[in-house]
What does this fold into?
Amino acid sequence: MELKPERLVAQLGAEAPRAAYLVAGAEPLLVLEAADAIRARARECGYGEREVFDADGRDFDWNALDASFRAPSLFSAQRLIELRLPTGRPGKEGAEVIAGFCASAAQAARSGGAPEIVLLVTAREWSRQHGGRWSEAIASIGHVVLAQPVRPHELEGWLESRMRQRGVRAERAAVQRLAERVQGNLLAAAQEVDKLALLAGEGTLDAARMEALVADAARFDVFRLVDAALAGQAAQATRMLAGLRAEGEAVPALMGMVVMELNRVAALARVQARGGNLGAEFKAQRVWESKQAVYRRALSRHPAARWERFVVMAGAVDRIAKGRVRTGEEPADAWLALERLLVAVAEPRAVALTG
It folds into this structure.
């Protein structure tokens, strides 16, 4: 059975532990909290022994995990076995071990009684390509919990729900202010909500009170700045650039990453324009599968020639920042030039602003 993280806690409270759980997704906080809820429920139900296996490399010994499934417990009649599978890909051998355990657990369940072993598999990466017979086997005897990132338009609702759970009430404007602060960082958001639960007191928080209580948890780093532009989030990129400037960053220190990313997208655009293998180019450019959607959205906004133009423009911004203005060029504000470039990358209608 497939569940969303917010449904998991209610489901756990309504039933005895299942024989297997898979918790996977790109959002670390949601994966962590879902796994913690499963561990807590297992402890409540008498699963007093816990074993942890880290399958984080090709040399992982799947036979050791299989042997643990078959071995009797030394300290407790019921055990929780946790398999940490960062890539979400157990390979052929691992898939067979997991599916074999699930088949044995299904057979034992038909005779009645609680399972002797609860298997908890956690993974940091997940997509349709990651699933297979092994994950279907887990779903047949337990639950699959997919912890997908909270989308920008869902963040305020997520924050409101979490604050209610912690006994914090806030006006809509206050929730919006908190969402602006955390910039989609759920780990930072969770910390801020926990702090609000301690400091807010009685009553409903307004925007001014929220501003006074929370710290600016948004990390204005160049990696996220470029990601925002590629994702088409012009307003966010502008705000993050202003934050970097306020923190004392210098434009030349930012341009290395900006130029590298624009060159990467330009290379992808050239391959796409000639009908080449974009998947192979993603691998060549070392773009992780979890980030490919951002690049694809960026590629859909501009033709290949425009990406080449953006690379040239980035070079011009770098020269302005370093005071190396070419003959005939007027000195310009490097911050303004960089802002215009990023907005043009994010929004096709703004390309005319770049001249």
Observations:
- The two ends are 55 Å apart (CA to CA).
- The first strand starts at residue 2 and ends at 3.
